[in-house]
Amino acid sequence: MIARGFRFKLDPTPEQDALLRQFAGVCRLVYNLALEQRATWGRKHRIGYVGQAAELTRLRAELDWIRAVYVSCQQQALRDLDQAFQNFFAGRASYLQPRKRGLNESFRFPGREVETKRLNAKWSAVRLPKLGWVKFRDTRPMQGTLKNATVSLDATGWHVSFAREIAHDARVPCPGRVGIDRGVATTLALSTGEMLRLPETLERIEVHKRKAQKVVARRKRGSNRRRRAQARVLRLQARQARIRRDFHHRVALDIARRFGVAVLEDLNTRGMTASARRTVGEPGRNVRQKAGLNRVILNASWHQFATILAYKMEERGGQVVTVPARFTSQTCAACDVVDARSRESQARFVCVSCGHTDHADINAAIVIKRRANSALLDVEGLHQRPYEASTGRDLTVSENPRPLGRGRC
Question: What residue stretches are annotated with the Transposase putative helix-turn-helix domain (predicted)?
């Protein structure tokens, strides 16, 4: 069984829209109250989901406006909080912050309490407890068993996301493997020689977004004009996100159909996009240039692509593996010599040892591909990085590279 999500645009009536906002507001309140309780009393008392769910029952008995919202949605908010604390204590996430109005508004229903039906060729409806039947634009067929339904609000309106479990038949993966270099100037470079870039539409939208952000800065805080200007910025950001996600889905699907193993660098994106500003007493260097580089890296959404590629490879019996990223841009794909001088420019790679010439990103993709199936040889040459690189330390790939997906390669 594999888990998959299906997201659709809701078309609620004005009455349903008001109820949806009420549901989101109460669930946000329950989450924030439970978070404050844990922050205040959690160090001296053991507080978990069970205890807070019991207190929620007493709170619903006292306040009618909280009781008006379906109880399962509020319980799901408490479960989310409990899981978030588990992630924090396990070191997988930072400490929790209160949820804010208008930011990532959402609430969830268990799958057993939700029902869907087809209305016509374009529209379907979902029955949500205490909300009734709500229309949604049916853009693709759904499969599997419904586990839960999440209703969310963004700049483009309300959406419903169905989480489903789908029976997964074992497939024979396609032969061959491909190395993928994720970059800035070239979004994705494949070891086959293909170079893929994000659509130019994103740059045009970015120009409009910056103008819209300047308009927001000129508006008075708390005014309706400022809220309308902010809504325009959010709509442009949502459009960028959709274009970027569509690009990643299309590329990942094409790769999954052609190859059985996809090899990526194990990139520390959080460290690569850390701010260079530092402190007033010890200011950083090249702060503006670093901020611009950070925006470009985050715009490429490297992690989103890796996540999408992993599940698409898994569906087809393939696998995604990661290898160390160190010196992939300075290693020659022909003779394995590492030398910083070989990287003549952002795009040109000319090996100072054997004379091999290629596009720098394509050369790096080939190196990434080779690192997945064999340990790197000791290398010689000039290094701009720590000396131990010449001994091969920290460059050796483990015999079993860490998989991102659970494929069967």
Answer: 1-41
